Amino acid sequence: MARETCSLLTVVAESVLEKQLVADLAKLGVTGFTVTDARGGGHHGRRDSGWDHTGNIRIEVLCDPGLAERLARHFEESYAGNFAMTLWLQDARR
Amino acid sequence: MARETCSLLTVVAESVLEKQLVADLAKLGVTGFTVTDARGGGHHGRRDSGWDHTGNIRIEVLCDPGLAERLARHFEESYAGNFAMTLWLQDARR
Amino acid sequence: MARETCSLLTVVAESVLEKQLVADLAKLGVTGFTVTDARGGGHHGRRDSGWDHTGNIRIEVLCDPGLAERLARHFEESYAGNFAMTLWLQDARR
């Protein structure tokens, strides 16, 4: 069985954003996602949250590369200026 | 020190499957794995679980590419028809 | 917007190491990291911890490839001989 190349988008953000981010995923056409609780530190996003540990979430979305890039841009434009958030894209096969 | 190319298999499935999946890993020759608790939504696998959040697990296995593909096929053939499950493969270096 | 190629370092280790590993990250110049609680089994590192499930952490660091390799070597040289630890590197785009 040949596997399909796809993208894995991982978004780490403050827990307070979970509901909004999940609602955005549905609106933008995502059909599946995974959320895990996390903690982190450092300088995520443009808001300097210091090196303290705070309640974060980690959202993963496996989808086609075009949708993954659209999601990434949407999150960056909508949230990265005002909230601690970091995201990255990777290749995957499903 | 040169690193070895390997595969990272990630399986997201209903929590009820954890014991069975871990038992399968041992039988199929896996020597290490990581489990995290997760929640998710969407249409994982062929069973439509809706957009609700439910108790999921996320299992990661780092191994040689041939074993990773065998594990992926085993899980797809054994569980994807009857349980909400999604999985993907990625390249990694260890 | 063009994305930058970077490395994702994932370290899975015994929970008891969390404070030390996070302190090392800061000393070595890391500006952001994510920690999730995990459990695992198998033969991570050179200490045979058996197939039992124990309290682990999973640390992710997204950074430039050179720093990721330096971090990986530091952790391997400092801890892998005496603690259950596994780590891997992957390409990512941010």
Can you walk me through this structure?
3 copies of one chain form a homotrimer. Chain A is of the alpha+beta class and 94 residues long. Chain A contains 2 helices and 4 strands, in the order E-H-E-E-H-E. Chain A starts with a strand and ends with a strand.
Brief account:
With 94 residues, chain A is an alpha+beta fold. The first copy, chain A, is 27% helix and 43% strand.
Task: Name its key features.
homotrimer; 94 residues
The oligomeric state of the chains shown is homotrimer
From the N-terminal CA to the C-terminal CA of chain A, the straight-line distance is: 10 Å
Q: From N to C, what is the helix and strand string of chain A?
A: EHEEHE
Biggest protein-protein interface? Answer: A-B, 20 and 21 residues
Cα shape of chain A? globular
Structural class from helices and strands of chain A?
A: alpha+beta
The value of Rg of chain A in angstroms is 13 Å
Strand content of chain A: 35-45%
Query: How many helical stretches of chain A?
Result: 2
Strands across the major sheet of chain A, in which order?
2-3-1-4
| Helical content band of chain A | 25-40%
Poorly predicted regions of chain A:
44-51
User: Mean pLDDT of chain A, as a whole number?
Assistant: 88
Q: Could you give the count of β-strands of chain A?
A: 4
The profile of the biggest β sheet of chain A is: 4 strands, antiparallel
SSE order and pairing:
The structure is a homotrimer of 94-residue chains.
Chain A: E1 5-14, H1 18-27, E2 32-42, E3 54-63, H2 65-79, E4 85-93
Antiparallel strand pairs in A: 1-3, 1-4, 2-3
